[in-house]
Amino acid sequence: MDLNADLGEGFGRWVLTDDEALLSVVTSANVACGFHAGDPATMRQVCEGAVARGVRIGAQVSYRDLAGFGRRAMDVPRAELADELTYQIGALEVFARAAGAGVAYVKPHGALYNRAVHDEQQAAAVVDAVGAFARAYGRELPILGLPGSALLRLAADAGLPTVTEAFADRAYTPAGTLVPRTEPGAVLHDPEAVVAQALAVAVAGEAATADGGRVSVAATSLCLHGDTPGAAALASRVRTALEAAGVRIEAFA
User: Fold this and answer.
1) For residue 159, which of 130, 198, 188 has the smallest C-alpha distance?
2) What is the dihedral of CA 99, 101, 104, 108, to 10 degrees?
3) Signal peptide location in the record (predicted)?
């Protein structure tokens, strides 16, 4: 199982994520590329830290929404959105290369991630951007997303590698999608519940649903959110529990 977390989600003097601590736990780092959070100095620092620890660097692309942290749904035309996403991937690639690596995958953030589950045009824009990167740099980047999503289906149709993802600290609907953050109980705050869900996903391939049931979740990567209080300590606890259960932790990219 790969462990990924959102890193670099600060801006200027505002620091949100404990990047140093999280980089010692995760195997893949979803780096904010400046549109929902992040700035050039932060991107450089996270890339350097990731390379030093053997952590894969992923471009966490989003809507242009610094004020809303990328969590507000926006109706951006496909071509315009694809250009903005390509811009973000390219910016991170420069810092990743300077650190001695390169962007290893792409993961949409926030509202774009959720829209790309069912919105064909928004999902297609992500695929277009990754395709543009492939033409420019001669390598195809895996796209990380929710199982059964339009995003992963369109990526596969385009011949791009796909990676399925589950969440340790998010509640699921019976359909296998994430409960919207606007609804009560969408985010799991109890550390015991987060660890239990991580183990259920990794060992049994299932997750708890908001109505008390269970849903099948086939995932190669497990997301541990980095923007919640005590995130680094919780991520470390999750990794320890997974390893104790015999789960091998390794990057997918």
Assistant:
1) 130
2) 10
3) none
Where does 54-173 have alpha helices with state H?
A: 78-98, 110-118, 120-137, 150-157
- Taking 80 as the threshold, does the pLDDT of residue 229 lie above it? no
Angle, helices 150-157/120-137, rounded to nearest 10 degrees: 40
Angle between the N-to-C axes of helices 78-98 and 40-53, in degrees from 0 to 180, rounded to the nearest 10: 60
Rounded to whole angstroms, what are the CA distances from 159 to 13, 33, 128, 147? 41, 25, 12, 17
Are 92 and 122 contacting, i.e. CB atoms less than 8 angstroms apart? no
Gap between the Cα atoms of 95 and 99, Å rounded: 6
**Domain chopping of the chain, boundaries:** 2-244
Model pLDDT for residues 126-160, shown as the tens digit of each residue: 999 999 999 999 999 999 999 999 999 999 999 99
pLDDT, position 168: 93
> Which residues make beta-bridge pairs with 178?
172
What pTM does this model have?
0.95
Please identify, in words, the CATH class of the domain defined by 2-244.
alpha beta
User: What's the N-to-C CA distance of the chain in angstroms?
Assistant: 12
Phi-psi region of 98 (alpha: psi -120 to 50; beta: other; left: phi over 0): alpha
Tokens of 30: 């979803």
